[in-house]
Amino acid sequence: MNARPVNGVAPLLGLVLAGGRSTRMRTDKAALRYGGRSQLERAMELISPHVQRAYVSVRADQTEDPLRARFAQIHDDRENVGPIAGLLAAQTHHPQAAWLVLACDLPLLDAATLSYLVRSRAADRAATAYRSSHDGLPEPLCAIWEPRSAAPLAAYVARGRQCPRRFLLEADTQLIDEPNPRALDNVNTPEEYRSVTSDLLPESTSDPKHITVQYYALLREQAGRREEAVVTRARTAAELYAQLAQRYPFSLTPEVLRVAINAEFREWTAPLTDGDAVVFIPPVAGG
Amino acid sequence: MPSFQFTAAPIAAEQLRVALADPACGGYAAFEGWVRDSNDGQRVRGLEYEAFEALGLREGERIIAEAIERFGVAHAVCAHRVGSLAVGELAVWVGVSAAHRDEAFRACRYIIDEVKHRLPIWKKEHYLNGDSGWVNCERCAAHAEEASVHQHVHDPV
Predict the structure, then answer these.
(1) Binning pLDDT at 50, 70 and 90, where does residue A36 land?
(2) What is the pTM of this model?
(3) Residue B157 lies inside a defined structural domain of this protein
(4) Three-state DSSP state, B71
(5) Are B22 and B74 in contact (CB under 8 A)?
(6) Quick one: closest CA in B to A261, which residue?
């Protein structure tokens, strides 16, 4: 492989980030399946046509993982700097290459969005990135990082900073708008996963159910009510909470809540039935 | 008398104690939880308990049944206050009677520990400086907010 500049334009290599701890998902995000393939396989397929060679970025303790061992790997050599660690390691390995960086947890990413990014590449800037359709900030994990970003990025991390969005915001970044505004929605929790898979599956439209929701303590204050009747197509308590969290400024994530249906503790994935009474239980404090 | 109860009125501990009396029992242990005037460095003026009673009664009775089964005690009772309480008031009462003291102490300890971790009841503290907060909730929320600033786009993948 020839990773040297041609006519001043650095050759493009691919880096799929799969070294995260998936703490909120509580299962390896790279192995999550959409449409019969793991996210990691899907990301590697998407990225390959655009790059001279594609690598998967892994932590040192993941090299033997069968899913990751099938691909060329670059190991993170730093702890606790988040996704930047993978990129820094890649830039150190191939300092003359530009990197098309892709998070492995973008199940809605389509080939057109990736092609448009590559076509829009501004090789004379530090990076080319999408502007988020949600908040207008740069999306660092579906972006092209040019070799000239390496030194400032290393200096940024050396200053104790690790937010790649902020780095791109301060750097000489070419920002482009997303052709498909949901393409870069990412999936960090079991609830988001179910919500995305239900969006992708046509049979997900279940019949509307009448559910009574009661709120206690902090959730009661944030919902501004003790109880309400909702009509919902949510199939599980997790989907219902995700819907209600769009409506109310809930500060508690599902990880710290429990669920009761008809006054018994249940799993988040328990199916809802017409007429159920649901309570989301904040962290308790008896005694 | 139910083995577990919520009460908006002050807990009648003496009545609960008398009901545990049994000629077969040589040991009795009780625990009282009181409202303290400080928590996490903040001066507490008073607090409110709010319970999900339908589930709380079931869970409370399950805890008592577990304690009786696990430690072989004769009788066990727990009462938990709801509503507004001032500093010094009795918030929770646990009493156990048994043939011997050791199992009475252990069952009593088990019940209060499980009640603190499992009972769907929430405590809002009111501080002398005018602030208030839901114990164990505000910190979770603050943590989630902090995490969302740094992980706005992605977990470290």
Answers:
(1) low
(2) 0.55
(3) no
(4) helix
(5) yes
(6) B55
Query: Is B156 part of a structural domain of the chain?
Result: no
Q: B-chain residues within 8 Å CB-CB of A157? A: none
* Within a domain: B112: yes
Q: Does B34 touch chain A (CB under 8 A)?
A: no
- For the residues A126-130, what does the mean pLDDT come to? 96
Total domains, chain B: 1
Single-letter code of the amino acid located at A265: F
N- to C-terminal Cα distance for chain A? 66
- For residue A190, what are its two tokens? 């079991």
In B, minimum Cα distance to A264 occurs at B55
> From the list B49, B119, B157, which residue is nearest A83 (CB)?
B157
Q: Is residue B134 part of a domain?
A: yes
Domains of chain A: 12-177 (3.90.550.10), 190-281 (3.10.20.30)
Give A155-190 pLDDT, tens digit per residue: 999 998 889 999 999 999 999 998 877 788 877 777
For chain A positions 46-65, those within 8 Å of chain B (CB to CB) are: none
CATH number of B78's domain: 3.90.1170.40
Question: From the centroid of its chain, how far is CA A115?
Answer: 20
Show the domain range for B135: 4-150
ipTM > 0.95, yes or no: no
Interface touch B50/A165, C-beta < 8 Å: no
pLDDT score, position B142: 58
- Asked which of A100-114, A117-131, B95-109 is least confident by mean pLDDT, the reply is A100-114
CB-CB neighbors (< 8 A) of A251 in chain B: 140-141, 144-145
With 0-12 / 13-18 / 19 or more C-beta atoms within 10 angstroms meaning exposed / middle / buried, residue B109 is middle
pLDDT, tens only, B2-24: 899 999 999 999 999 999 999 99
Among the partner-chain residues B58, B91, B119, the one whose CB lies closest to the CB of A284 is: B119
Q: How far apart are CA B109 and CA B113, in angstroms?
A: 6
